Amino acid sequence: MTGFANYQREIVQLGKDGESLPFTTDLAALEGAVRAKVPAGPYWYVAGGAGTGATVRANRAAFERWRIVPRMLRNADRRDLSTTVLGMHLPAPVLLAPVGVQSILHQEAELASTRAAAELGLPSVLSSSSSRTLEEVASAGCDAPRWMQLYWSSDREVCASILDRGKRAGFSALVVTVDTWTRGWRPHEMDRGYYPAAQGIGMAIPFSDPVFRKPPEEDLSAALEVWQRMPTDAGKSWQQFSFLRDHWSGPIVVKGILHPDDARRAVASGADGIVVSNHGGRQVDGAVGALEMLPEVVDAVGAEVDVLFDSGIRTGADVIKALALGAKAVLVGRPYVYGLAQAGEAGVLHVLRSLLADIDITLGLVGYRSPAELDRDALR
């Protein structure tokens, strides 16, 4: 075994020594384990989808419709998972997706997940709804690449201030999420009346901003009311994208694209990358599975910008399918947060090492030595 696959050997050795892992290596089974561990409110906040959950199911069904065609005797015993995204060298084509309010699952929250990613050299994308400030998370990530998400605020001064803080804190890429200008219809959250933001949870970035600065410690309700008015601006258009270019000098990635025409508009507006995503099924019930649209988006803009994929990744085979369909890398979300709920930083690290080992081993078993060798011929 080579590279990330060595984690399997470590696990086998644990068994020989009479020890066991703290929780499963089956990332698809983590959701059930976490459901038994954490209260219903936090669980459904992470696991729940919009409406009936049809889009969450569609994401997984889209992966099931594609099958890998293994190839034999292709000298794939030594593999290199490294890739380049936005000009950045990555040890593997995996990033941590922006997931907010992580403190509802573990007290170390985003600090733990950032440290785990940094140990492996993987980029983590900090959510705008982080439980910790930009500056705190930047310190936790050491020298590992870190990206920041932006929910595009209607307050230009606050938005500019947050972008400036991100640059000064060393965040190298901006991920603008365009599919969440307002909350989707999520019955599991509403039925339980569970809204972390209403308690000020996940508001560390705006509440620490010198321009926003409506002191929550003095009047939490007033601070929340101000902030809640800012992101819910449906008036944004591609013509306003220049504002982001004026206030961010690094790469800008647009997350939440499904239609190839939207991908073209994003590129024409100045985007450096696209994330094909339906927000993990949390925004629109009955939407198309994200993987179904990946080939169309890649065909539309893949020669001009890096196309990444998000929504439904659970296994190494999932990653290989997304890469074969043209993604340069994938973002993994719920699984690492479930690992956080199980065992904090160690739990996130276990999830990431399990996923990377699965990618490494499966890639070799199907006859490929690197992500760059994958194309649609690998699938049926």
Shape: globular
In spatial order, strands of the major sheet run: 3-10-9-8-7-6-5-4
Which runs of at least 5 residues are low in confidence (pLDDT < 50)? none
Helical region count? 15
The SSE order reads HHHHEEEHEHEHEHHHHEHEHEHEH
Number of strands: 10
Instruction: Tell me the major beta sheet.
Output: 8 strands, parallel
Distance between the termini: 28 Å
Structural class by sheet pairing and helices: alpha/beta
Instruction: Estimate what percentage of residues fall within beta strands.
Output: 5-15%
**Proportion in helices:** 40-55%
Mean pLDDT: 94
Radius of gyration: 20 Å
Walk me through the structure.
- By secondary structure, this protein is an alpha/beta fold.
- The strands form two sheets. An eight-stranded parallel β-sheet has the order 3-10-9-8-7-6-5-4.
- The longest helix is centred in the last third of the chain and has 32 residues.
- The radius of gyration is 20 Å and the shape is globular.
- The two termini are 28 Å apart.
Walk me through the topology.
Layout: H1 6-16, H2 30-35, H3 40-47, H4 54-65, E1 83-85, E2 88-90, E3 94-96, H5 109-120, E4 124-126, H6 134-140, E5 146-151, H7 156-168, E6 173-177, H8 187-192, H9 204-207, H10 220-229, H11 242-247, E7 252-257, H12 260-269, E8 273-276, H13 290-301, E9 306-310, H14 316-324, E10 329-332, H15 334-365
Helix pairs in contact: 5-15, 12-13, 14-15
Summarize the structure.
The protein is α/β, with parallel strands linked by helices. It has 15 helices and ten strands.
